[in-house]
Amino acid sequence: MKKLSAWLKENKITEVECVITDFTGIARGKIMPCNKFIDEKGIRLPESILIQSVTGDYVDDDVYDVLIDPAEIDMILKPDENAVFMVPFALEPTAMIIHDCYDKQGNPISMSPRNVLKKVLSLYEAKGWKPVIAPELEFYLTKRNADPDFPLEPPIGRSGRQESGRQSYSIDAANEYDPMFEDVYDWCEQQNLDIDTLIHEEGTAQMEINFRHGDALSLADQVFVFKRTVREAALKHNMTATFMAKPIGDEPGSSMHVHQSILDSKTGINIFSNEDGTQTESFLHFIGGQQKYIAACMPLFAPNVNSYRRFLPGTSAPVNVAWGIDNRTVSLRVPDSTPAARRVENRLAGADANPYLAFAATLLCGYLGMLERVAPGKPVQGSGYEESSAESLPLNLEAALECMENSDELKEILSPIFVQAYVEVKRAEYQNFKRVISSWERKYLQMTV
Ligand SMILES: NC(=O)CC[C@H](N)C(=O)O
Fold first, then answer.
1. Where would I find the GS beta-grasp domain in this sequence (predicted)?
2. Domains and CATH numbers, the chain
């Protein structure tokens, strides 16, 4: 805390945002004057905010009472001194400090997404392994639109024109939004976010930003901060940025691909490659584990009803657990690389996934594979969409939640209470969704059936 207080004073910070993430990945917490934060003897928040759904609905009362202490006991929040970020878009000098959640006895709260990732990372640490992660995030820029019944539209660019048609990798199309991306780059630099390349993706006004590879916890923090940053930059330029997995029906979805390699903690050598450059057994087992456990983790990669609209053949989004070398039609792609950079790209997660939970899930699958020495079978040649031998995935939220609920491994490692709470919150959201009658139903059924 001493180091942190000195940093806050040095940077003349006047306001502090004390932040945690809930299941959705939303920033929740308290905003306070910097002096109050420095004098604070422990910030508290009710545990129930972790299990709030996107609709703001809570789970049923009887389930709620099992998950949360009926007395609504507070959690104790502790700042992570390695997770302090400037807030460049704030009106006064502001720092956002990511906190961890503990109970009164000092135990990490199992339902906190950041604690879930830390738990998985501690399994790796105990084995002398260190995961290295590189996420890629897709998102759409759209016109501002306050009416949820009105489909999203591409924004007006710098030239005054509205983008139309597919613009994959077009530099000029990306430059249409240059003033906004100038802010994104400046703000990311001020926050020490390690972003790398920007490209225009396939969809109309769909963008992708890649992160440089690094430590999994730090990158989860960075993705969390980045999403907030992009949304703010878009608003400043009179647009909105959305990380929904499928915001526009006839455009491609948005993913969060996760590249993963594992280093020996002592030597820093990639355990996926032998000295002579060939692939190791651990590499194959890592892939095997992903294939075996991905279905149970599906709600952590695809958390919303909308997430499942992305998984369509022919869209570079996966539909099964096939793996392949330099193949974009499978969920587990092994990019062409040097032996030192040998890695597995998990292409399942949507841009809407909570980065802490998606990273925890994919690393857990790989870890279990290496532990159980799961063989992955042969890599796919050609299109993975035609691969009948690759097990398919639960491709709707209900089926995915059932897989998760039935996984003893997830309950054992991530704790039964986390799995139950997550499944119940997502079920509550799904019930809420089912109560809404869509315009499609009105259009095709109202006067016909
Ligand atoms: N370039 C790509 O690989 C596209 C990925 C695709 N947008 C998806 O949702 O998975």
1. 14-106
2. 1-108+415-449 (3.10.20.70), 123-414 (3.30.590.10)
Give the distance (Å) from ligand 1 centre to CA of residue 347.
8
316 within ligand 1 shell (Cβ under 6 A) = yes
Kindly provide the b/e burial profile for residues 4-21, where b requires at least 16 CB atoms within 10 angstroms of the residue's own CB: beeebeeeebebbbbbbb
Report pTM. 0.96
Q: What is the DSSP string of 202-219?
A: SSTTEEEEEEPPEEHHHH
Query: What is the whole-number distance in angstroms between the Cα of residue 162 and the centre of ligand 1?
Result: 23
Please name the amino acid found at residue 133. Answer: I
Establish whether residue 317 lines the binding site of ligand 1, counting it when its CB lies within 6 angstroms of any ligand atom. yes
Residue 302 Cα to ligand 1 midpoint, Å, equals 14
* Dihedral, CA of residue 67, residue 69, residue 74 and residue 80, to nearest 10: -30
Ligand 1 pocket, residue 255 CB under 6 Å: yes
Could you tell me the sign of the dihedral formed by the alpha carbons of 111, 113, 119, 123, in that order? positive
Residue that has been written with the tokens 């990945």 in this structure? 25
- Output the residue whose Cα is nearest ligand 1's atom 3: 316
Interval 141-195: pLDDT, tens? 999 988 888 889 999 999 998 888 788 888 888 899 999 999 999 999 999 999 9
* DSSP of 121-179: HHHHHHHTEEEEEEEEEEEEEEE----TTSPP-PPB-TTSPBP-S--TT-HHHHHTTHH
